[in-house]
Automatic annotation (TrEMBL):
Organism lineage: Eukaryota, Metazoa, Ecdysozoa, Arthropoda, Hexapoda
UniProt xrefs under InterPro entries: Dev_Immune_Receptor, Leu-rich_rpt, Leu-rich_rpt_typical-subtyp, LRR_dom_sf
Name of protein: Leucine-rich repeat protein
Organism, as annotated: Aedes albopictus
Record carries keyword Signal: yes
Signal peptide: 1-26
Keywords of the record: Leucine-rich repeat, Repeat, Signal
Amino acid sequence: MDRNSCWISLCLVVLATMSYHRTTLAKNITCWELPCRQNRYHFDCCIRNLEIDDGTTIESANFARQQYILLEDSNIYTVSPQLFQLMTDAKMLEIIGGFVPWVYLRPSLTMLTITDSQTKQIFIDPEQKKYRLIWLEVRNITMKELPPNLNQLRDLEHIGLVDSGLEFLVMDQFDGLNKLEELNLSGNNIARIYVNFPMRLPSLRCLQLNDNQLTAIDLSFWHMPELTTFDLSSNQLKYMAHYNSNQFDKLCAIKAERNKWNCKWLEEFLHACFHFRGYGFSERQVECDEDVEWRENCCYGNETDVGYLEYLREMQLI
């Protein structure tokens, strides 16, 4: 049974009472436990087309026994904190579509998924020390920057912020996430990555930065001893600075196709890293035909190219 077939029997019952003569519209929200055992997510509570605006108050809500909640195509404005705080026992929350601009993270959640929603920010309490979140997946929303206090979520194993409008990245915000194994930041508009101090992600195995707007990347402060997959494809990268194999003990391949690699830098990189195996890196690398834009396996320019001079300056060689 798919999710759609469950909605009619699972959806939240919203009882609305209206009073006239300048009284306030109120909605009593009660979430019944109607388990759908054959649904792959086993949602105990499905809330669909819920409207909460400036004139709406939540008088009561029963989420006490609900661990798996789906919030779909709902518009929630001023009372987001109140609504999320009522989900006292929720372990998994999925938000699909609708207008939910602010999501207040409950400590009890182990999984949060937001897809195709008009969500601007996820609020994480810097004073809260008991967050249990393991899985965070956000797709096709507009955030522009990472959620503040992200490194308070010490149990995180997976972060996916995909097609979320991120414009820059401060890697320091991941510092302390020692259990993190997968970090997917693909499909954003990231043009610059900042690292202000040595950053260690001891469990990270997969890092995806593909399909962004990166032109250069400095790896001097990165230490990811378990990293095996590093996807940099479909950017505008000309070089990587301060690559040191000791920082990436298990890295054997970088997905590097569809970039703007400088030919001189690439020659030196491959010579220095003779053990290295990479998709998009080849000993037979040839200079791109100027008439052919964005070929998969070619490089651009030589030692006089502005990209190579930028690299030398970055390495303090000139």
